[in-house]
């Protein structure tokens, strides 16, 4: 049973060997994010009468005292349609700085869609075990940017925010509240279901990689991040484990890791010869 | 930023400037206190749920059906009403809800169907709407020998307390969205 669970959660039979503290930290952080997403509505419901607006949270919009953390993508959409206000700058600054420094870490560390993605990967693994074919369409790299720009343009044309309708962290956070507060799921459940089906039957983590406007936004902002995955070619045996374990189609084996890296560190943890490591590098410079 | 991204960003900026906004008519809905005018509100709201999260009477709702408004809050006065605690206006991260004093709120206007109202139809004595109104004698006053309610929409904030208080046998008051 334990073996089955381990394999389901870590498909492709790849063992995480070292840098395990990093993986523990990431899993703890993700666990905390999920706990916040699903338990805050419950806690809220029981403290409704004595409500304190100084601590609020859904994955895309958190407030603790004076500290505000709002998703840069949703803030950008508002700024494009409504103009920039000081309030908006104040709420967006922490998120923009974090992503600029750490890159696309939200996707690998905090996104509440990650359990769904894990389930999708497990389903793909099961399908392949049963001898059924699984498609893995690689959409062109530019797709995510097209989706990002498209979502912003369509929103502007229609005069509505499109991002909260299709962006999984926003959708999941809202649906969690909806279930607890009103006892019913909304249309957002179908968005998550569609993303799951796409990831399972069309393209591995294809939604995160090519369709998620938030991922594209974080990749764009995170291009300034100095954190890189470095491959020491003298130790590398070209075993391809790192390329296979990566959900987002990066290629650490060929030292080709761009701003699409979600900082999950699984390539580093799974490398049999410890050829991979984190490296700080000023963006724009070639090593 | 590489050249392709730069070209993409420029193209997006040009499109945003050229394409006329709000091709679609804004829906008529009761929005939370302090909401921007229809049209502007839908542009600013990111559907983060904070306003519904702090609403003590849970009248701030989100639609569940498939629509473009699925991520914007509306007010449901079916069971409860807004108590003008103004917490929702304090939590909005994108200024879709502006910080206001309770007296400045304008959620909607009251519509009284006199043929259903107990005093107006002579069915009995009822002053519930007058008694619960946060601005009695300004937003609603009682007139005539039967003490029937007379609303002054210009002084009414549209909190819906009268709609909530109106007896289920009458249901004569409805807060309607601003036109």
How would you summarize the topology of this molecule?
The complex is a heterodimer of chains A (287) and B (179).
Chain A: H1 2-9, H2 20-46, E1 55-58, E2 61-64, E3 67-70, H3 72-82, H4 86-102, H5 105-109, H6 114-129, H7 143-158, H8 163-166, H9 168-182, H10 188-201, H11 206-211, H12 213-221, E4 227-231, H13 241-245, H14 266-270, E5 276-280
Antiparallel strand pairs in A: 1-2, 2-3, 4-5
Helix pairs in contact in A: 2-9, 6-10, 7-12, 9-10
Chain B: H1 3-18, H2 40-44, H3 50-54, E1 60-61, E2 74-75, H4 87-91, E3 108-112, H5 128-132, E4 140-143, E5 148-151, H6 161-165, E6 173-177
Antiparallel strand pairs in B: 1-2, 3-6, 4-5
Q: Can you describe this structure?
A:
The complex is a heterodimer of chains A (287) and B (179). With 287 residues, chain A is mainly α. Chain A has one domain. In chain A, the strands form two sheets. In chain A, strands 1-2-3 form a three-stranded antiparallel sheet. In chain A, strands 4-5 form a two-stranded antiparallel ribbon. In chain A, α7 crosses α12 and α9 packs across α10. The longest helix of chain A has 27 residues. Chain A is globular, with a radius of gyration of 20 Å. The model of chain A has no long low-confidence stretch (mean pLDDT 87). In chain B, a hairpin with a 4-residue loop joins β4 and β5. Chain B has two domains: 80 residues, Alpha-Beta Plaits, CATH 3.30.70; 72 residues, Alpha-Beta Plaits, CATH 3.30.70. With 179 residues, chain B is an alpha+beta fold. Chains A and B meet through α3, α4, α7, α8 and α9 of A and α1, α2, α3 and α4 of B.
């Amino acid at each position: 049973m334990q073996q089955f669970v381990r394999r389901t959660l870590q498909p492709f039979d790849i063992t995480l060997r070292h840098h395990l503290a990093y993986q523990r930290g990431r899993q703890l952080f993700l666990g905390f994010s999920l706990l916040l997403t699903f338990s805050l509505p419950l806690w809220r419901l029981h403290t409704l009468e004595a409500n304190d607006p100084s601590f609020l949270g859904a994955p895309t919009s958190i407030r603790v005292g004076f500290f505000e953390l709002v998703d840069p993508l949703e803030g950008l959409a508002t700024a494009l349609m409504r103009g920039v206000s000081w309030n908006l700058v104040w709420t967006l600054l922490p998120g923009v700085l974090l992503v600029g420094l750490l890159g696309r870490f939200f996707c690998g560390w905090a996104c509440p869609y990650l359990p769904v993605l894990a389930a999708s990967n497990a389903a793909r693994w099961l399908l392949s075990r049963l001898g059924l074919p699984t498609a893995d369409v690689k959409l062109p790299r530019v797709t995510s940017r097209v989706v990002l720009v498209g979502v912003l343009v369509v929103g502007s044309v229609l005069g509505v925010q499109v991002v909260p309708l299709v962006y999984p962290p926003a959708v999941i956070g809202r649906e969690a509240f909806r279930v607890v507060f009103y006892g019913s799921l909304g249309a957002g459940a179908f968005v998550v279901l569609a993303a799951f089906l796409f990831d399972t039957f069309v393209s591995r983590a294809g939604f995160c990689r090519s369709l998620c406007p938030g991922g594209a936004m974080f990749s764009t902002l995170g291009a300034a991040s100095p954190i890189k995955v470095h491959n020491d070619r003298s130790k590398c045996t070209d075993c391809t484990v790192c390329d296979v374990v990566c959900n987002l189609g990066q290629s650490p084996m060929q030292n080709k890791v761009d701003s699409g890296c979600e900082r999950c560190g699984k390539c580093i943890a799974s490398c049999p010869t410890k050829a991979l490591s984190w490296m700080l590098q000023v963006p724009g410079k070639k090593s | 930023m590489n050249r392709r991204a730069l070209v993409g960003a420029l193209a997006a900026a040009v499109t945003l400037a050229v394409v006329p906004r709000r091709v679609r008519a804004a829906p008529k809905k009761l929005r939370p206190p302090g909401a921007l005018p229809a049209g502007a509100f839908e542009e600013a709201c990111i559907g983060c749920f904070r306003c519904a999260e702090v609403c003590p009477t849970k009248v701030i709702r989100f639609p569940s059906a498939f629509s473009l408004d699925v991520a914007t809050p509306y007010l449901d006065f079916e069971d409860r009403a807004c108590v003008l605690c103004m917490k929702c206006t304090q939590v909005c991260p994108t200024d879709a809800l502006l910080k206001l004093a309770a007296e400045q709120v304008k959620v909607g206007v009251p519509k009284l169907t006199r043929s259903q109202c107990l005093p107006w139809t002579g069915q009995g004595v009822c002053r519930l709407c007058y008694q619960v109104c946060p601005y009695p004698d300004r937003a609603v006053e009682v007139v005539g020998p039967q003490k029937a309610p007379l609303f002054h929409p210009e002084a009414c904030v549209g909190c819906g307390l009268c709609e909530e208080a109106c007896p289920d046998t009458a249901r004569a008051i409805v807060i309607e969205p601003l036109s």
